[in-house]
Every structure is written in C-alpha cells, then in structure tokens.
Design brief:
This protein is mainly beta. It has one domain. The radius of gyration is 30 Å and the shape is elongated. It starts with a helix and ends with a strand.
Length: 270
Amino acid sequence: MKNILLILFTGSILSVSAQLQPVLKNKRGINILPERGDYCIGFGANPLLDYIGNMFNNSSNNNSPGASFAAPNQMLFGKYMKSANIAYRASFRFAIINNTSMVNVADMRPDAPVNSQVIDEQKQRSTILGLAVGIEKRKGSTRLQGFYGADFTLGYNSGSNTKFEYGNKLEHLDTGIIRVTKIRASSMFTIGVRGFAGVEYFVAPRISVGGELGYGPSVYVRSAAESTTERHDFSTAQTVEEKSALSPKAKGFTLDTDNYNGILKLLFYF
C-alpha cells in the first residue's frame, strides 16, 4: 500500500511540474523551441529579407537569394545546446589563398629569335584565420527568445604577399631599370572579448530569425610592410637588391560597440 501511495505521489509531482513548465508546440504537436542536445547552423538572413522586401516594392532586379554567412568575415557559425537555456557557440574560418598570373613579354636576349617571348610571373599568397568561441544564455518560453553571453575572438591575416619572377635577365634590359621582386604586406593579429545580447523569433519549429549587438575590448599587432627591388650594376656585373619600408609596425587597443556587421541570422536547429 505504501509503495502504491509513493508512486501516485511521485506521478502527481511530475504532472504538476510539467504543467508549470509547458513545452511550446505548434498545432501538429511539434516542439518549436530547441532542446538539450540540439545542434544549430546559421546563415545570413539579409539576402532572403531583401528578396521578400523587393517583391513588394516593384523592383525589376530582384535576384533570388543565396546562402550567406551568419558571422563576420566569412566565418562559419554554429551552436550546441547544452540545455534548453544554455548554448555553446563557435565561428570559424581558415583560408589559404594562392593566385598566379602570367603574361608573355618579348625575349630581350641579344641572340633571341625574332618575335620570341618569355613569361613574367606574379604569385600572390595570403592566409586568413578567424575564430570565435563563446557561451550563450537564453530567456523566454514563447516564440520570442532573448539571449546574452560572451565570445572570445581571435584573428590573423597575413595580407597579400607578392613575388615577381621575370623571364628576362636584368643585364639584357636597358641601363637603370629597377624592378620589384617582392612585396611583403603587413600582417595583422587581433585578440578580444565581446559581450553580446540579442533576440531570436521562431518562425517555425526549430527555425528562427535573429540578430545581436556586442561590446568589448580588443588589441591588435600589425607587422611592418616592405618591398624588395633589384637593379643591375653594369660596372660590377652584379645584381643589387634593395629593400624599402612601405609601412611601420603598429599596435593598438579598442573598446567599442559592434553590430555583428549588420547581419541578421537565419538559424536551423536539429
């Protein structure tokens, strides 16, 4: 008898708790809000909203929307729901960019065949790293959800470093020719912390549109930029290299607001 009473008492407590914390569902009984263990990926909602808006203003150039980034500087954005009200979030980008351009020019060797050509080549290389990790606290039990939290941010950009390779030797060109062989751009390293707050509205089960604002400090370090040139010293028959500064080293500190580059996010939870 005591066991039966205990089971009934426990069941009544769980029933009351469920009534005090109802799960928001649509008319078909599907949960609208994200739950513990859900993952989330984000896209920029701006192209979609622009497309919808242009449908009502008689725009004759209303291109169909495409996927765009939900985080600044082309970073991928995602979240993991630790609980219904707490999420871990991250944005990430790692890019290595190599470009090579080639152009045919006249072969300037004294014994070169008529109309023969050689190739001048330009190579550009850059590396970009972006990372943001943080924690998000959510508030609200309706389709409209508020959230706030903090992100740690890290960024690196090597700049566009350029190398030139020429088909003609300097001694085959006119006296006094100076040409660029390398341009080393300034690299930039940044680190910061930002607090943020924003809102999401769930337009459908597990699908929301939202935006956020942020505030916080960051520091940066920028390397010097320089160029390398070469010329031929005909008196010594030697090629002489010279380096010139383009910009000095720099470092700085900022404390400012941000609007996440004006991005409105379209979020999918699954």
